[in-house]
Write a structure and sequence with these properties.
With 620 residues, the chain is an alpha/beta fold. The chain is 49% helix and 12% strand. The longest helix has 35 residues, at 492-526.
Length: 620
Amino acid sequence: MINIRKLEAELWESADLLRAGSKLTSNQYCMPVLGLIFLRYAYSRFKMVEAEILKNRPSRGGRVMPVEASDFAAKSALFLPKEAQYDYLLNLPDDIASAGLVNRDRQTMTSLGEVVNNAMALIEEQSSQLTGVLPKSYTDFSDELLSELLRIFNNSALDEVGGDIIGRIYEYFLNKFAKNIASDDGVFFTPKSLVKMIVNIIEPKSGILLDPACGSGGMFIQSGDFVNQSGMNANSAMTFYGQEKVEYNAQLCLMNMAVHGLTGAIKSGDEANSFYHDAHNLDGCCDYVMANPPFNVDKVKAESCESAKRLPFGMPSINKNKEVGNGNYLWISYFYSYLNEKGRAGFVMASSATDGQGKDKDIRRKLVETGHVDVMISVGNNFFYTKSLPCSLWFFDKNKNEAIKDKVLFIDARNYYTVVDRTLNEWSEWQLKNLNAIVWLYRGETEKYTALLDEYRTILGKGDFEDILHQLKDELKDLQKRAKIEVEHAGRGDKKRIQGEYDEMIASKNEEVTVAKEANWLYEKFGNGKYKDILGLCKTAYTTDVAKDNDKDENENKISIEEKGWSLTPGAYVGVAPVEDDGVDFEERMAEIHLELLSLQAESNDLMDTISKNMKEMGL
């Protein structure tokens, strides 16, 4: 398992050290550096797809047919000519002038900067949407600086394409550069687990997908993966449209999409400010809308919003300066308005918006009364990469099935997450599937829930999930004890090897325990597959009192959104879960803490002795 935070920090430290030693400003340095990361990632994907193509490649006269650009196009991937491949650039001689290299215009190249510029131009020839997008200012860099940067990003960790490591590296570098490149303006990047949750619940299949605040394109990438995994070709099935006010984010979006073999229409700059422009004329046309818009934006010009329309429920509150003081309900209205008669929307929104008062409340009431609010999910703190704020995920569906047309599913997931480190939380793959499973059951899609249980059983084997979990925990404890004993009794030369072997076995067993925990978490709540309200986790509520009164199910603990004052805050409906036993043996843990304390005390005493001795030697 790669320590992604360590990798990000190391790459940044190395790259920033080089910038500090050069005469380049952050503005000059940002896009070219991101361009090199793009180039490295494009090469990783190129090699992966090339290996797939060569698996069943026909041969003539004993020679395997060479791969061509058309082979990559068929697999929705970007073809790289030899002179644009990362290892080609990496292995060039130090003296470029003596190598006799010529660019695409047959002119002799005398610097590494010219060679990298040429590589970028060659890639642009492979993808029309990249024309004029890739950076070509590498002659601003000395050959030594550029060569060192190429070496820094030649990290094997970036070959783990499936883990979307490059997305994280992009994000990390962008955030580091952002302080110098652009004012924050409420813009921050969407964590992958939130994007995946939105895509999983919306389930894009075919049609028009719009992200009116598309950033570096995460929604498009995940949607493309979702469609491709279902056996269809994302470029054939979907049409991607994006708007992004910040120019360099839009460039990154196009680079990101090209690497993933996706094509789309992305507009940027002032004409792409979604508050004032429907840049693609898509009002009422979209099958899917997904977004993580900037929250709580103020000073939005009311008249410009009104003339741009897309406000089916009316304007939010306007101040004396004819401005909308908070843009959240503009976004919410726009997302709804973009949908066609069967469309679905999913977006990230500030937590405060679920309970906004005044005009916001009026808009929310009208929205709920349409019956098109589908699912509301509360997300806890520390999901965003650079912000600690909590948020909510909102989902609209204009084509809900009959059984749930007057209902909304509320999920409070604030206490359900995996800790990545002190400042970052996320949903693991299994947690994403479990939360998705609640939505499946609410929608009556029990076959998907059953398939997930089967997936758990394939990994864990047959039997009761709780029993399996206890057994795996016992096995883990046993492994940890054996590791401690064997390492203590090993000779000096063998300690490291034995510790390494046990570390691998313990990590593997820990993964099994994690899967068993998640399987048990899901099964103990929903058994073989029937939705029910779970205190502290999920609750279905009726849209209005009338809808509640018209339902004949007398066994249900009925509640309506109307009687809750049109609140869409999940916590107002699901209640508080009983405190669960965390499974920690109190006496055992206290004994461990006591030993840790004694050890720290001993270290402190040794340190004090050393300081005292040094001071005496100094005559103090």
